[in-house]
Specification:
- Helix 1 links the parallel strand 1 and strand 2.
- This protein is of the alpha/beta class.
- The N terminus is likely disordered.
- It is built from eleven helices and ten strands.
Length: 287
């Protein structure tokens, strides 16, 4: 997987650094190695080595060992409450470093949604977590609010995994985000994997995830929030799509082609990172 790293001869001189925000569902070594978690580990490193500035976010799942991975809370970024369904949920931000790659990873944490759950998306009985819908909302909004606190304006926001599927619509449509100059020029890239689930979120998800500025058209795919509809919404509100699986759901593939959105077709490990960075540049050139 070290093929993800861009070689020195691929680096390009830049007068001002392009800023790339990575929003990941999984990152190795904090979680077991999978195609998605290895992308989370090596794509940001390759992007940084190509001359871009990066920030990286992922959920702080309860299976992550804080002591072994040296996570610590960032007090200045923590302390906010996010309201979901009229309930306050404390937002805790933690950080860890991958020294070898000179990268910092920010973790979105909350006791009820992440820390106390010693599993990812399926519980100890193999059942889809009942609150995955709320976790999806909390994680995405937590990333946005933390980036605001960092006062760091990304040129590209690259989302990986369905837990980040609300990021495109929030950035493009939610009024409290749209009015923030940090995101005015941000371009959204969404990566589609083979992380499909068969279940649907509970009824009323469109009300739970709605933020000011979103209208009925923005909510249409969230009334029946299954995997396919989450991907369709992500496609609609993204500026570009990366196909990160060679087993793309046929319905999603058909929708992607019909959308006429720019997309990067499936790449092997050797060419993946360089192809993604060239795709970022092509999306920014269209501004």
């Amino acid at each position: 997987m070290r093929n993800f790293v861009v070689s020195k001869q691929d680096k390009q001189p830049m007068t001002s650094k392009t800023r790339v925000l990575f929003v990941h569902q999984e990152i190795a070594p904090y979680l077991p190695e999978t195609p998605m978690s290895l992308v989370g580990r090596y794509l940001p490193q390759a992007t940084q080595e190509s001359g871009k500035e990066i920030r990286i976010f992922m959920p702080r799942y309860g299976v992550i060992n804080e002591r072994r991975n040296q996570l610590h809370e960032v007090i200045r970024l923590s302390g906010m409450n996010l309201i979901i369904n009229d309930t306050d949920h404390p937002l805790i931000i933690k950080v860890a470093s991958i020294q070898k790659a000179r990268m910092q990873i920010y973790f979105i944490d909350n006791d009820d949604f992440f820390t106390k759950k010693k599993y990812l998306m399926y519980d100890e009985n193999g059942a889809f977590c009942e609150d995955n819908d709320s976790r999806c909302v909390f994680f995405t909004r937590g990333v946005i609010e933390t980036v605001k606190k960092l006062n760091w304006s990304p040129d590209i926001i690259h989302c990986h995994g369905w837990i980040s599927a609300l990021m495109p619509v929030y950035i493009k449509r939610a009024m409290n985000v749209r009015d923030n100059p940090l995101f005015n020029e941000s371009k959204i890239i969404y990566s589609i994997y083979d992380d499909e689930f068969e279940e649907s979120f509970k009824a009323g998800f469109e009300k739970k995830m709605k933020l000011p500025g979103m209208n009925a058209k923005d909510l249409k795919y969230f009334k029946e929030a299954n995997y396919v509809n989450l991907m369709k919404a992500a496609i609609d509100y993204s500026d570009g799509i990366v196909v990160s699986t060679n087993r793309l759901n046929p319905e999603i593939e058909e929708y992607l082609v019909a959308s006429k959105k720019p997309f990067l077709s499936y790449q092997d490990q050797v060419h993946y990172a360089q192809a993604c960075n060239e795709f970022y540049d092509s999306i920014l050139e269209k501004q």
